[in-house]
Amino acid sequence: MADTWTKAAENQEQQEIQKLNENINNVTISNDAKPPAAVKEEDLDEVNPADASLLMKIIRKGLIETKTDLDIQRKDPNSPLYSVKTFEALHLKPELLRGVYAMGYNNPSKIQETALPTLIADPPQNMIAQSQSGTGKTAAFTLAMLTRVDTAKDFPQVLCLSPTYELAIQTGEVAARMAKFCPEIRIRYAVRGEDIARGTKLTDHVIIGTPGKVLDWSLKFHAFDLSKITVFVLDEADVMIAQQGHQDQCIRLHKHLSKKCQMMLFSATYEKKVMEFAEYIVPSPITIRLKKEEEVLDNIKQYYVRCPNQDIKYQAIANIYGVITIGQAIIFCHTRKTAGWLASKMAQEGHSVGVLSGELTVEQRLAVLDRFREGHEKVLITTNVLSRGIDIEQVNIVVNFDLPVDQTGRADCETYLHRIGRTGRFGKHGIAINLVDSEQSMKVCRDIERHFGKKIMLLDAENSDEIEKIGS
Ligand SMILES: Nc1ncnc2c1ncn2[C@@H]1O[C@H](COP(=O)(O)OP(=O)(O)OP(=O)(O)O)[C@@H](O)[C@H]1O
């Protein structure tokens, strides 16, 4: 009975969200439909004094991007973007080097210049690598994957697993762009919606997908042979090996790999126990680790706002929405229900927002994400389903409508770090705003602050000293 009720409620919720997305799709697209560029100092002059509340000023100031910022970070040995080498010095194949430059990359980031020479050297070495969100891990492992492909062999040799459909597609797109000048390399997505007939033998070199589909194709349909895989990559490795569901599937796949297969594990976070487990399943790895205090990027400024009730919480969101004339925001909610509620309330008030949560079909999810990427909506409301890996350059504000907690209600610091990492991509400035609505959520906020050893500042419109500090 309870199950039937839950199913009915879920169906209804799904229909509501679908309807909402349809409505959103019908909303007239604003003039600034193109993805806006990074915020420049001169944009501040455009602030209309009539609507420039202190909150707006704070956010604008925090987002100013100075032209020399990236250069400064590149020269700072403490920055994850610090690089002493050039891409040429990494000994990539000339075709891949052309691909890298065609993507507009000039210099490698720290993780790229540290990991890549080891990953592409012979004999192949296993690696467990950690680097902050938005610092170019995808390019690091993708270049290593493409380097290892032997196009004389017509079967899958490289397997890359991602935790979500969206992330697998995003990684595949990066790989395809990197491989632009290697047309003979064939890349295949193993994700929901991609189907193969029984008896098919895949001739693609690189498989990028989610664990369930990869299991089906390899062990159920025998479309490719796991023992012939020479490179196995786990993106967001900590969830892939520690989170129930993914864990079983990954371990099953892992068991069929040859002993010679090179393993690469990448993530921005590894809890201590997860790292120990990773080191146990990956033979003799080279490990690249961050110190706790390095995990949160300095270019993401973190704030909390006290919101005593739901109305004020909504008002804070409406204010933030008003501020974003440049850039975009992602709002994270704890449940689909809250995400749906917030999205419909904002849509009713004429705001153009997208909503993406787990119960949409994969096609709907991708469509919502594409619209947001293209700048049709300036706000995307979502749940943890989008907390990891998604790379949208122009996102400069992340709002935690609800702070991330685990099943016992304690601070989920890893999810927090991944959520706020949707902004501040590759050295850009970003702002994370936490809406604190109870003593319990204040405690969660403090626990997160303590965990990373980085201050989460009170965003208090009355506190002019604090306001002056922001953006300096
Ligand atoms: N060397 C480079 N030069 C310039 N831009 C780069 C370089 N490497 C990566 N980027 C860009 O930086 C952004 C973030 O990279 P990426 O998505 O790989 O980060 P990540 O470390 O995987 O982040 P996450 O932990 O969130 O998954 C992307 O837009 C990517 O195109």
From TrEMBL:
Name the residue ranges of motif: Q motif: 85-113
Q: A GO molecular function for this record?
A: ATP binding
Q: Which InterPro entries match?
A: DEAD/DEAH_box_helicase_dom (IPR011545), Helicase_ATP-bd (IPR014001), Helicase_C-like (IPR001650), P-loop_NTPase (IPR027417), RNA_helicase_DEAD_Q_motif (IPR014014)
Q: Where does this polypeptide localize?
A: Cytoplasm; Nucleus
Q: Does the keyword Lipoprotein apply?
A: no
Question: Could you tell me which Pfam families the record lists for this protein?
Answer: DEAD, Helicase_C
Under catalytic activity, the entry for this protein gives: ATP + H2O = ADP + phosphate + H(+)
The superkingdom of the source organism is Eukaryota
Q: What CDD domains does the entry give?
A: SF2_C_DEAD
Helicase C-terminal domain sequence ranges: 299-467
Which Enzyme Commission numbers does its entry carry?
3.6.4.13
Q: List cellular component terms (GO).
A: cytoplasm; nucleus
Q: Where is this region: Disordered?
A: 22-45
> Residues in domain Helicase ATP-binding?
118-288
Q: Which UniProt keywords apply?
A: ATP-binding, Cytoplasm, Helicase, Hydrolase, Nucleotide-binding, Nucleus, RNA-binding
Start-end of Polar residues biased regions: 22-31
Question: What is its EC class?
Answer: hydrolase
Q: Which positions, given as ranges, span the membrane?
A: none
Major place of residence? cytoplasm
Give me any GO biological process, just one: regulation of gene expression
Instruction: Please report the stretch or stretches of sequence annotated as the DEAD-box RNA helicase Q domain.
Output: 85-113
Name the chain's protein. Answer: RNA helicase
UniProt source species: Chironomus tentans
